[in-house]
Amino acid sequence: MTNIPKLETPNGEKKVLLHSCCAPCSGDLMQRMTDSGIDFTIFFYNPNIHPLKEYEIRKNENKRFADKLGKEYVDGDYDVQDWFSRAKGMEFEPERGKRCTMCFDMRFERTALYAKENGFKLFTSSLGISRWKNMNQINECGLRAASHYDGVEYWTYNWRKHGGGARMYEIAKKEKFYKQEYCGCIYSLRDSNEWREKNGRPKIKICEEFYEG
Questions:
Q1: Which CATH architecture has domain 13-198?
Q2: Total-model pTM
């Protein structure tokens, strides 16, 4: 991790609540914050992930890396029924559409609430590092959630800068993180498998493929 600029947080905050969607996406953020001397806590709240077996392995992989770095890890609720209730009527929305906005809002609202209740003035998320995501959409959701709580700010840093996207894959391979093959929700799994079938590829096998050491 040489020649990578140290992170500078808004207002010089040294304590950050990091909403993590998974270990592969958050690995670079966690490493950069550690190297920059930022005291951060992982907040894993992702009730969108389906099925439960997939949720558990993504959660455990994230905790494994947090433990390795000696960082606090908070396990949020898996209130999947609430997520399904909110997604009703949006089952066939495209990736980056209204359903994704709902999903980000739900996760960031809970993250912002935890930040407010536990003395964090700043929170951010690993969601924006993926090239498959719309960073503006994610930042808008983060800022909206933060606006509901006085004294809480969402950090809109572009985690793809300075080679962050490439290091994300490097760290995932080095740490042998579980290689997830779809965004997470039941609808992204459905759409991914439909694409695979049309292109002559086998369907996704939940929790069976890992990075080779």
A1: 3-Layer(aba) Sandwich (3.40)
A2: 0.93
